[in-house]
Amino acid sequence: MIPQFSSIAAILSSTLIFLVGNGLLGTLIPVRAHLEGFSTLAIGVIGSAYFAGFVIGCFTGPRWLNRVGHIRTFMVCAGIAAAATLMQSILISVTAWVAMRALFGFAAANMYMVLESWLNDRAGNETRGRIFAAYLSVNFGGLLVGQLLFATSRPGSFTLFSLTTIFYALCMIPVGLTRLPQPVPAPVPVLRPLRLFRISPVGVAGCIAVGLANNAIWTMAPVYAQSRGLSNGMIALFMAAFTIGGTLLQVPVGRLSDRMDRRYVIAGICALAAVVGIVIAVFGGHGHGLILWLMALYGTLMLQLYGLSVAHANDRIPRQQFVEASATLLLINSLASIVGPTLAAGLMDAFGVVALFFFTAAVHITMTVFTVVRLRQKEGPGEVFRERFEPVPHQASPTALELDPRGPEEEKVA
Fold first, then answer.
1. What tens digit of pLDDT does each residue of 15-26 get?
2. What number is the average pLDDT over the span 131-135?
3. Pick from 52, 36, 41, 232: nearest CA to 147
4. To 10 degrees, the CA torsion angle through 308, 313, 318, 321?
5. Are residue 172 and residue 250 in the same domain, yes or no?
6. Within this chain, do residues 228 and 145 fall inside the same structural domain, yes or no?
7. How far apart are CA 344 and CA 40, in angstroms?
8. What is the pLDDT of residue 138?
9. By CB count within 10 A, which of 28, 124, 250, 326 is most buried?
10. How many Å apart are CA 410 and CA 340, to the nearest integer?
11. Mean pLDDT of 257-262
């Protein structure tokens, strides 16, 4: 197993460096935009632009890989990401930032696709689960470190944009020096959202809820924290608490869902998330220590829904269709993510920053009601048809789905 991991060390290293930059930039952009006087709605549109670019990148990425290969695609897109980040520190306007975030999202989708397809190519059936777990650890760890680095300098200065750009430049080095053979690009799976909704309404609805609520939090929570008077260090801890809470309990909650109809767990965590969201909206201004604990609890609940929704849909389809179904769910989630930040920001503009958590609570209440109704209408799959839960990364390309251990077994070239 050690030789297996040493062979992918370069890919995991580039992934880690890239995600450290993403974690830092994801917190920096809304805070800096707020400092520059951008309206809350404009900040939401900037957040939505990233997901719009990401969706486009997921469709065009395979063509780039086929045309110029993995290393060149990664280098070009890392250069685009670095340039777009630096441009945001120079061109301080809503229009420029919307365009740069869309461009960055496009580049990020292609970079994820390169890294994940390379890992999938190196994974055999007997090692796929462990490589996927290593990728998840790097994914969550890089994001967390990046969020904490936000506290190292003033968001109004050039420094944090420069630091982020450095990470995007450094992530080219391991991939650029690797001697691994480039994988053959995988075909893009056919996406049939309506068919999947008929098979698994709760799975599809859950991915829509994640796109609306979770990505509204990723985009707008730093603005909420800044408006509450939190220092830069506290804003970093505020976002890190949300990430840590959601990461630590993914596997225990998933294993619990393996033992019953997953819809009971989905309804339970959505109902609890709605309660915690309302508590944050009402009591979030009563103490900085309290809000950190509440955000950790909120992340513990909110960040479970995507993995549970994918697992529930997977329970209802043949294993051979898992990649197609998961790619469809990822597309649905990404499209909802375009809407979520802008909708939440509009409500915050109209009713104040606490509307962010009332909005997410409303999404979770709706999801709870829908799930309970489906529980009464249709029985869940029997235990024999239930796949084992696997955690999923917060952000990924469709290529990562082939690395998931629940996918169909295939022959791999070692």
1. 999 999 999 999
2. 77
3. 232
4. -100
5. no
6. no
7. 9
8. 87
9. 326
10. 37
11. 81
